[in-house]
């Protein structure tokens, strides 16, 4: 099980738990109450139930830890869905605000934000690390996302959710281990200067690849 504390408080009382073979859960450490988070949406844009025996879109069984993380201020949750994409969920209302499709539809193994919150990285079963630019304002991100959605009243359902997602998370770069058949075990992100992003890609127990994407490396 993977666990994340809410990053928006010095003494966080909300915990994000990602258990094996079930949806991620928000846990209130003060009251002990818990909320199951959505992992899939229908074409109509409503939350869909993912049965544990279902396989992911690339045929992988769901017997792996679920993947989810907070954004920098904790207002948004980014959750892997069953179709190789990312659901963006309001951490207070648990409402799905956007869907970000990932090319290829491969199962996402991990999601990470850079320390400044301006980049999001995904590590997928297709051995590709994808770096996205996060165009949302860092303060009150959920409010900003609602404003984007409110300007698209002509769209509905999953089409609207995907369009909203494309407005604030845009693919910036891809690092591929497909040729050498390397399975990245995790992704670590560190901002090295205002325009630079350092991506560390550990494989087989040691860090073997380092890329400074903002530095042209």
From TrEMBL:
Give the signal peptide range.
Answer: none
> Main localization of the protein?
nucleus
Source domain of life is Eukaryota
- Alphabetical UniProt keywords: Nucleus, Repeat, WD repeat
**Record InterPro entries:** Quino_amine_DH_bsu, RBBP5/Swd1, WD40/YVTN_repeat-like_dom_sf
Compartments it resides in? Nucleus
Could you give one GO CC term from the UniProt record? Set1C/COMPASS complex
- The protein in question is named Retinoblastoma-binding protein 5
> Which organism's genome codes for this protein?
Anthurium amnicola
């Amino acid at each position: 099980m993977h666990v994340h504390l809410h990053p928006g408080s010095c003494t966080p009382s909300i915990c994000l738990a990602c258990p094996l073979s079930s949806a991620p859960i928000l846990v209130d450490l003060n009251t002990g109450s818990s909320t199951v988070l959505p992992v899939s949406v229908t074409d109509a844009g409503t939350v869909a139930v993912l049965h544990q025996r279902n396989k992911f879109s690339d045929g992988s069984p769901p017997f792996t830890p679920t993947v989810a993380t907070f954004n920098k201020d904790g207002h948004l949750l980014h959750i892997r869905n069953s179709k190789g994409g990312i659901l963006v969920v309001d951490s207070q209302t648990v409402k799905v605000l956007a869907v970000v499709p990932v090319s290829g539809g491969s199962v996402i193994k991990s999601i990470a934000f850079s320390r400044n919150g301006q980049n999001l990285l995904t590590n997928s079963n297709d051995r590709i690390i994808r770096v996205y630019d996060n165009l949302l304002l860092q303060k009150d991100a959920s409010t900003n996302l609602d404003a984007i959605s409110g300007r698209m009243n002509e769209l509905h359902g999953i089409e609207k959710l995907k369009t909203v997602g494309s407005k604030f998370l845009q693919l910036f770069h891809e690092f591929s281990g497909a040729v050498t058949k390397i399975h990245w075990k995790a992704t670590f992100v560190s901002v090295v200067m205002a325009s630079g992003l350092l991506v560390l890609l550990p494989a087989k127990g040691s860090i073997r690849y380092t890329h400074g994407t903002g530095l042209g490396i």
